[in-house]
Amino acid sequence: MWNEDLRPCSLAEHSWHSGKFASLWIGMCICLPTYSLAASMIALGMNWWESVATILCGSAIVMAAILLVSHAGTKFGIPYPVFARLWFGTRGAHVPALARAVIAAGWFGINSWFGGQALDAILGHLIRSWSSNGWHLGVAFSAFWFINVIVATRGPQAIGRLAQVSAPTLAIGAIALFAWAVHAVGGFGPLLARPAAIHGVAFWSGFLPSVVGVIAFWATMALNIPDYTRYAVSQRSQVRGQIFAMPLTMALFSFVGIVVTSATVALFGTALWNPVALIVKFPTPVVVIAGIVVILSSVTINVGANVMAPARAFENLWPKRITFAWGAVMTGLLSLLMQPWYVLSSFTNYIFLWLGAYGAMLGAFDGIAIADYWLVRKRRLDLAQLYAPRGIYAYARGVNPRAIAALIAGWTLAVLGTMAASMHAPWARGWSGLFTRLSAGGWVLSLFGGLAAYALLMQGSRSRISQEEYDAITASETAAIHPKVTWSASAVDAT
C-alpha cells in the first residue's frame, strides 16, 4: 500500500508557496474549455454580465468545497487516493479514485481534441494539400494526444513548473484576442449592448444548470486537490493562492470569451463558441501564433488537472508495479474511449450532457469527503494506519459499507429529483422547466445527499479516534520528524 508517489510528503517537500498555487490555477483556468463554457452561455441567450455572474457564482461555490478538501492534503501530506482510503477503506478507495480517473480521462480527451484541432488548423495553413486528405484531423489529434502523454509522464513537479511558464503566455494571448474583438466591432458598445435573448423562467432554466455546470467544471479538482496542496508550505499559503486565483481568473477569462463570442455574432452572424473555429478565419501568421497558444493552453490544463488524479488512481491499484508514468499512459488510452469529438459536437452536449451528468456522479463523493474529514473525524486521523492493509481503515475486508450506502443515497437523491421533474410532480408544477434544468445538474443534490447520509451513518464507527489518541500519535511523530528526514516504509512501520 506504499510507494514513492503515495507516501506522505516530508517537511522539506512542503515547498509550494501562494504564488505557485496561483500560477497553477491561472494556467488551468485560461484554457479552451473555460472559454467554451462562457461562450456557450452567450449561445444560450444570456447577455455579457449575466454570463460573467454565472461563472463567478459557480466558481465561488465550488471553491468553498475545494478549500475544505485542501486542508487534509496540506496537514498530512497525502495524495488523493490515500485520502480516499480514510472514507471508503483501503480497498474501497478504488471506487472514488477510479470515478475521478474516468472523468479526468474525459477532460484529457476534450483538451486533446481542442489542441488537435489547433494543430490541424496550423498545418492546414502551412501545407496546401493538408486539408484535402480525409485523415488530416485524426492525425493532428493523434499527434497532439501523444505529446500530452509524453509530457504527463514527467511527473507532478514538472507539472508545477509548466504552469509557471505557461500562465503568463496564456494571459498575453487572452489579452490579444480581447483587443482584436474590441477593435473589430469598433469598441465595447456593440459588444456590451447586446441584449439577453431569454427572460423570466426561461432565464432561470438556463442560469441554474449553467451554475451547476461551472461547479461541475471543477468538481473533479474538489476531490483530488490534496494531490497539490500536500506540497503547500502552510495552510495559509494554499488558501491565499487558491481563493483569489481561481474565481477571479475564471471570471476574467470568461469575460474574454464572452466579448470575443459576441464579436463573432456581429461579424459572422453566428456565435462561434469553439475558439478553433474562429482561429481559422485569420491570416496564416495569426493562425500559427494563436494555434501555438491554444496548444500550450491545452497541454497545461491536461497535465495540470487531468493527469494527476487518474495516474495516482491507477498507481493505487497496484502500488508495487504501476508508476506515475504508466498511470499517465493509461489515462491517455482511457481518454480515447470517452469520445471527446462527440462531447464537443454541440454546446448542449458540453453543458447538459457532459458537465451535468458527471457533476451528479462526483457530487456524492465530494460530500462524503467533506463530511468525513470535517464532521465525522474533526480533522483527526492516524496517518500510519492509512498504509496498513489490516488497520482501522480497512473496515470490512478493506471496504467501508457506510460510504457505499452514502454514495448510493447521494446518487438516488439526484435521480429522484430528475424523475420528479420529468413526471411533472405537483409541487414542481409551474416551475417544471426550471426544476428540470436544476435536476439535470445534480451536483448539488448529490453532494448534500452523500454528505448528510455519511455523517449520520458514521456516528458509531470505530475508525474515529479521540482527541487523546490523536495527541498521543502526533506527539510521538512530531518528535521524530526533522525537515531533512526522508520518509521510508520502515519509518512508518516504526511509527
Descriptive notes:
The structure is a single chain. The protein has a domain at 11-345: Hydantoin permease, CATH 1.10.4160.10. Helix content is 72%, strand content 0%. It contains 24 helices and no strands. Helix 1 runs parallel beside helix 13 and helix 5 (94-126) packs across helix 6 (136-152). The protein is globular and about 70 Å long. Mean pLDDT is 82; it is low at 425-440 and 478-495.
Q: Can you name the CATH architecture of the domain at 11-345?
A: Orthogonal Bundle
CATH superfamily of the domain at 11-345: Hydantoin permease
Query: How many β strands by DSSP?
Result: 0
Distance between the termini: 16 Å
Classification by helices and strands: mainly alpha
What's the average pLDDT?
Answer: 82
CATH topology of the domain at 11-345: Hydantoin permease
Topology order in helix (H) and strand (E) letters: HHHHHHHHHHHHHHHHHHHHHHHH
Task: State the low-pLDDT regions, or none.
Answer: 425-440, 478-495
Shape: globular
Task: Please state roughly what percent of the residues sit in beta strands, choosing from under 5%, 5-15%, 15-25%, 25-35%, 35-45% or over 45%.
Answer: under 5%
The share of residues in helices is over 70%
Contiguous helical run count: 24
User: Biggest sheet: strands, sense, closure?
Assistant: none
Cα gyration radius (Å): 23 Å
CATH class of the domain at 11-345: Mainly Alpha
